[in-house]
């Protein structure tokens, strides 16, 4: 009898967790094109570098987007939210200048995360390398 109850509880919890699932985040989105930096590019930390991307939301409206840099452990080393009521805009150009002094040459991940008016989101990630110029 206890076994039947336990199986019922586990099944109920599994069903509830499935119902609470977040809206999907589409990774490597065709709606976002990262122009700079390019995948696996070496970027020197001696000066600021530009992040350039294009969001083409198709039939959705962009509410906000984030530009983030993540270290190899996926900790944020740069994070900027841009709120945008870009209703009806077919193309949104992103241009950010970022200065990051790396203590040693390291792999970095650029993540652009976009939130739409309908509650969905999408993201694009581009790995590149920050080169320490103070060696």
What does this protein look like?
- The termini are far apart.
- The chain is 13% helix and 49% strand.
- With 135 residues, it is mainly beta.
- The strands form two sheets. Strands 1, 3, 5, 6, 8 and 9 form a six-stranded mixed sheet that branches. The protein has a three-stranded antiparallel sheet with strand order 2-4-7, with no helix packed on it.
- A hairpin with a 5-residue loop joins strand 5 and strand 6 (76-86).
- The model is unreliable at 15-26 (pLDDT under 50).
- The chain contains one helix and nine strands.
Topology:
Layout: H1 2-19, E1 25-26, E2 32-36, E3 42-44, E4 49-55, E5 62-70, E6 76-86, E7 92-98, E8 106-116, E9 121-131
Parallel strand pairs: 1-9, 3-9
Antiparallel strand pairs: 2-4, 4-7, 5-6, 5-8, 8-9
Shape: globular
What fraction strand? Answer: over 45%
Largest sheet entry = 6 strands, mixed
Number of strands: 9
Succession of helices and strands: HEEEEEEEEE
Which ranges are low-confidence, i.e. pLDDT below 50, for 5 or more consecutive residues? 15-26
Terminal-residue CA separation: 69 Å
Number of helices: 1
Gyration radius, to the nearest Å?
A: 20 Å
> How would you classify the helix and strand content by structural class?
mainly beta
Helix content: 10-25%
Question: If you average the pLDDT, what whole number results?
Answer: 81
């Amino acid at each position: 009898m206890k076994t039947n109850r336990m199986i019922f509880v586990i099944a109920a919890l599994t069903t509830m967790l499935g119902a609470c699932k977040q809206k999907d985040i589409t990774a490597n989105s065709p709606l976002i094109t990262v122009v700079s930096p390019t995948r696996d590019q070496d970027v020197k930390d001696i000066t600021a570098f530009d992040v350039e991307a294009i969001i083409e939301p198709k039939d959705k409206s962009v509410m906000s987007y984030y530009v983030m840099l993540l270290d190899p452990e996926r900790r944020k080393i740069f994070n900027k939210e841009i709120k945008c009521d870009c209703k009806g805009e077919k193309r949104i150009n992103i241009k950010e200048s970022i200065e990051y002094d790396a203590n040693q040459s390291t792999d970095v991940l650029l993540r652009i995360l976009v939130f739409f008016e309908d509650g969905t989101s999408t993201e694009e990630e581009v790995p590149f390398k920050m080169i320490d110029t103070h060696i």
